[in-house]
Amino acid sequence: MIKRIAQTAGFTGLLAALLLTLLQSFWVAPLILQAETFEKAPIATEVAHEHAAHMHDAQAWEPEDGWQRVLSTTGGNLVVAVGFALMLAGLYTLRAPTRTAQGLLWGLAGYATFVLAPTLGLPPELPGTAAADLALRQTWWIGTAASTAAGIALIVFGHNWLLKVLGVAILAVPHVIGAPQPEVHAMLAPEALEAQFKIASQLTNVAFWLALGLISAWLFRRNRDGQYSA
Amino acid sequence: MSIISSTSPTARHTTTLSQRLTAAIGASILGACLVYFAGFSHIEAVHNAAHDTRHSAAFPCH
Questions:
Q1: Is A129 in a helix, a strand, or coil?
Q2: Number of independent structural domains in chain B
Q3: Contact (CB<8Å) A1/B33
Q4: Which residues pair with A129 in a beta bridge?
Q5: Which of A19, A27, A70, A87 would best serve as a mutation to test chain B binding (most B beta carbons within 10 A)?
Q6: For residue B3, is it within any domain?
Q7: pLDDT value at position A228?
Q8: Residues A101, A103, A105, A107, CA torsion sign
Q9: Touching check for A9 and chain B: CB below 8 Å?
Q10: Can you tell me the distance from the alpha carbon of A152 to that of A166, in angstroms, rounded to the nearest whole number?
């Protein structure tokens, strides 16, 4: 069972991370690099200075633009993708997909949990955008993902309407509380660039999650060793 | 007598619900740790390395 989870997660993570890197390199990363030219410009406002000081601490290692940066982003993608794939494969041991196409639904649920719900309160941001305290935002993000996961699970797997209603309520809680917002909304990059980045990020993440769900369901079913009848 | 011995091979292949739950929870926690490390860690070098991953995935960054 553990071997099946590890194999599914490992190969799924690898393939999905490669797809993600490809999409990012052509679409998302150029927008980030473009935004950084505003961030590093000498006329940058106070927000930028605060931001830059916060970001480029002392002599912390930083990949150089070019192959180093692409490689380290690929590494980051790989760790994140294997992490998400481990969660999916773990859940499959409880609810094995009966068809490979069901992986798409798992992928959509993952996208809703880890991208769509958090970005309703904290939209994808380009470097150089003013934001509330990092720890507060991270806490809200994690809380939102957790409640969205619990909410979706109750709605989909709940056996009676009471559980489903509870699921909807849990889903809504973080949005009623509201995401931490900065005192002043400000950004260095032009709004058009930010808008483009939001679309690029969302679509890239949809593709990533659909691939993650589909590949993981396919591999999980392929590695079937007769342990599960479902 | 033969009935008893014939049940053992199938019993060997079934996993109990608690075993599956343990595997599911274990895998999920391990997965969450990986995502946290790459996406949320406050270690500066990790942040810099996974910077573009974080922005692209819409994780809170900076």
A1: strand
A2: 1
A3: no
A4: A187
A5: A87
A6: no
A7: 47
A8: negative
A9: yes
A10: 10
> How remote is the C-alpha of A23 from its chain's centroid?
14
Inside any domain, residue B7 = no
Identify any residues that bridge with A187 across adjacent strands, giving them in sequence order: A129
Contacts of B44 in chain A (CB under 8 A): 57-58, 60-61
Q: Where in the sequence is the domain holding B50, given as residue range(s)?
A: 13-56
Spatial distance between the Cα atoms of A62 and A75, rounded to a whole number of angstroms = 14
ipTM comes to: 0.88
Q: Cα separation of A221 and A107, whole Å?
A: 16
Q: How far lies A208's CA from each of A24, A171, A197, A201, in Å?
A: 10, 23, 16, 10
Written as one letter, the residue type at A212 is L
Query: What are the structure tokens assigned to A204, written together?
Result: 């890239």
Quick one: tokens of A10?
Answer: 């490992």
How is residue B54 written in tokens? Answer: 């974080």
Token digits for A175? 């949005």
Q: For chain A, where are the alpha helices, taking DSSP H only?
A: 2-23, 29-39, 46-55, 67-92, 102-111, 117-121, 134-157, 161-177, 191-222
Domain annotation covers residue B19: yes
- The separation between the first and the last C-alpha atoms of chain B, rounded to the nearest angstrom, is 70
* Among the listed residues B29, B14, B6, B49, the one whose alpha carbon sits nearest the alpha carbon of residue A9: B29
> How long, in residues, is chain B?
62
**Which secondary structure element, helix H or strand E, spans residue B47, and what is its range?**
helix B44-49
pLDDT at site A33: 94
Residue with tokens 């809380």: A143
The two three-digit tokens of residue A202, written as one number: 């969302």
pLDDT digits (tens, 9 = 90+) for B24-50: 999 999 999 999 999 999 999 999 999
Q: Is the dihedral of CA A147, A151, A154, A156 positive or negative?
A: negative
Tell me what pLDDT residue A68 has.
Answer: 94
B51 domain residue, yes or no: yes
Residue A52 in tokens: 């830059």
